[in-house]
Predict the structure of MBL fold metallo-hydrolase.
Amino acid sequence: MLQLRCFTFNPFMENTYILFDETKEAVIFDPGCYEKEEQNTLLTFIENEGLTVKYLINTHCHIDHVLGNAFIKRKFNVPLLIHQNEVPVLKSVIAYASNYGFPAFEETAPDHFIDENNTIDFGNTQLKIKFIPGHAPGHLVFYHEPSKICIAGDTLFQGSIGRTDLPGSNHDDLIKYIKSSLFTLPDDLVVYPGHGEETSIGFEKEHNPFVGKRARF
């Protein structure tokens, strides 16, 4: 059975997720842990649960989602997986990290590129992937239908969508891909976003003011 644990880190209140199953193999998504206390919180949970981390994955590479990349890679010696379109996004972080109050940010390089033709396999679990650009050029969403879990990053939020005023963002693309791809997933799939509380595909299809049936134009 797939399990999920969420940790909210850094001043951006970013959601970091750990997924693991009965084999105790685990995947970490979007580690936002920057401060030592945040890193220790994540490490303590992993140690207490007896987890073996297999992959580090960024849904996308904006600063709030990658602050803990170097820590995770170094601590667990695991590969970093991203979409190839996120390379310039990831490389740019070091140039502005200090301006956002993160002078000790460490650069990391991706080890493998993934897209929606791949799956993420760990333990007895296989996650499928959706390519949902718009908030970021290589944004990926990961889901597991049997467990009704969807790691959505900054694509779809409870009553909102990812911002599209950042370099590499495209509002029309985000709307299009949410409707044509993300909304093809089952209504009862629980959406775990990069910020804020979880929601569901069905609820957002009906109520989201940007992409739902009652969207305001």
Remarks:
- The chain has one domain: 3-207.
- The first strand starts at residue 3 and ends at 9.
